Amino acid sequence: EVQLQASGGGLVQAGGSLRLSCVASGLSFDEYAIGWFRQAPGKEREGVSCIRSDDGNTYHVDSVKGRFTISRDNAKNTVYLQMNNLNPEETAVYYCAAVPSILTAVVPTTPSQYYYWGRGTQVTVSS
Known about the structure:
There is one protein chain. The chain is mainly β. It is 0% helix and 50% strand. It contains no helices and 11 strands. The chain has strands spanning 3-7, 10-13, 18-25, 32-39, 46-51, 58-60, 68-73, 78-83, 92-100, 116-117, 121-126. The strands form 2 sheets. Strands 2, 4, 5, 6, 9, 10 and 11 form a 7-stranded mixed sheet that branches. The chain is globular and about 40 Å long. The mean pLDDT is 95.
């Protein structure tokens, strides 16, 4: 039984910040890559930030580089996404997902590469 629980979403004003958390259970956390994805109304789900477990390599979609930071605390089975200077266009449901790092040669960035998904957390950015 694998569970991924995303939390930390909410309502913020443009320019504000949020810190999302993804707590995993039922898997060997330090063997899995973790990705954050978001899906806004009328848009496809996109990879936002991802992190591997073995080499620690990270990925950020161009639109969030310099503003978002992904990190992991293996002792707490948790991955964080620090989001700064949020824009209204980034209003979406944010999901975390997991895939064994051994199955990927580079940091996985697309939804089809991930095996396990959690329930999303709503992020709303007002203008």
